[in-house]
């Protein structure tokens, strides 16, 4: 069983006082050690133990071992337990010292180690420090404790029926706090570890043995020791125990009316440990059995059933009506939950989304709100209701004090301590992002730029260089036992570019949610996706439209490049463009590239003409040009109704390269503002920032794979 992850305070003897770089002494239990105050007033402390904490967090050895440097120099505050749990109390007047020499001490088995260090006070004469020292000297250090306030990433960990939060990696240590009831730290974000009032292990598991059961066992043990030794008192069933008691001790209750008077007297007179079970106790036994059966047969979630079972096991007196009332009350309290833990939103109908985890359910709810193709889109028609369902802020004030922290933690899949003013904004932003990226990838009409450009990836914002490759000519013959000669390298020409950021902001206001302005919010991911998609689309086709200078200092389409024409589109003119592209030569070798046009770029005004040139089916005797059949791509924003462009197959002769930072081809969405403390909104708005990072350039010899007619 893992050690209880709580903090112990230990004193150092003068011989144990740590020096810089010296290892901390191994922590030991306060009841098994003697302590003396060190000369400088320092105190050896155990910050946190591995294993399961009193708050159902779990700390592996690996996470604590890695976190040791983060705890070095951590501030120590004297706080109330309530201040510690809320993350408050960080006042210079409460600062009493720091923790130094932090190291991880291995335990006897897996996940039994601990982080230890030395507490050094700012002022040894501080009343709080003196109280700590006195407690150590008097062997009363168990009255005080230290508890961490830290940030960490967690994951679920199941132990039996209990789901714990297992710390994966600590990211920041805010402080180590002196409190009364220490627990231990661990969780996704903010970890404020102070132990709440915890039941004993048996109470927590619902294992406390009822009084009637104890009495029956005692009677059996006294009357039939051999039969008592053959049973397991901890696991024997209720019915089995009653039957055994009747077999060895006689009936629990006198059976006939004639003996009622004597039986009643005997029952009243029995006061000692050997007293038989009373009629009232038998009735309670039967009621407990009914309670157990009815709770088990209910549709309540497992944790709720267990809670009710424990409640009735501990209750000394209750009625059958109270059983039904308790089940009904629990059901009403959990009316928004299914047995698996998912949420039902009455406003969205009985058929609303059902998934196993509440956070997944809420994510699906928001996705259904934004996505018309989602199966539950029609059921999620109110942004206001979705906001209330997530936050519990029924008046839509945007204020943290009006939100249900527990509901938000479960809805958003984080710990209660991790909830802050940016949580709802992030959750809404995540759903907007998913919908935006879905629309972005679905707008295939705006992906036609991929037919005229190659796609790459870069790892930083530095200038990228693309050198010329090829131009070696034919490979020379190699004689028997002859040497291979070096091929002549192409020129050192290179094209350069670097990626840059493109983006903007969009806002969701408090009024939008309060007024339930559904259409406005639903259009946000659509408009963001189209803006990003159109920007990239135009970025690529602007290379062909604007005819800017390329790596050699000349325009992409230039008379020196042999790719600039001035005549309107026709079959004869297209044949001239094709021939010019075929006659382009490879740098270095001078051999023809023989790359023909694969794509024809045109404005909408030339679409019908181009279609008739290449695609008409009724012409049974096709001309040579019609057999070429290039892919026709109308460029939506080109306004010059006469210019047209041809582009070669990018696999054969790449013209243009477009690269994305870290290969991320979809835009990203972030919360732009850090909301004001205590509010879900900054200036009554949540501002989202969209960002898309890419860049590109015409490659070396890229001009040889394209032609353009600039028609007056």
From TrEMBL:
Quote any Pfam family the record assigns. Answer: Phage_capsid_4
Q: Which organism is it from?
A: Vandammella animalimorsus
Instruction: For the region Disordered, give the residue spans.
Output: 1-26, 187-207
Q: What is this protein called?
A: Bacteriophage Mu GpT domain-containing protein
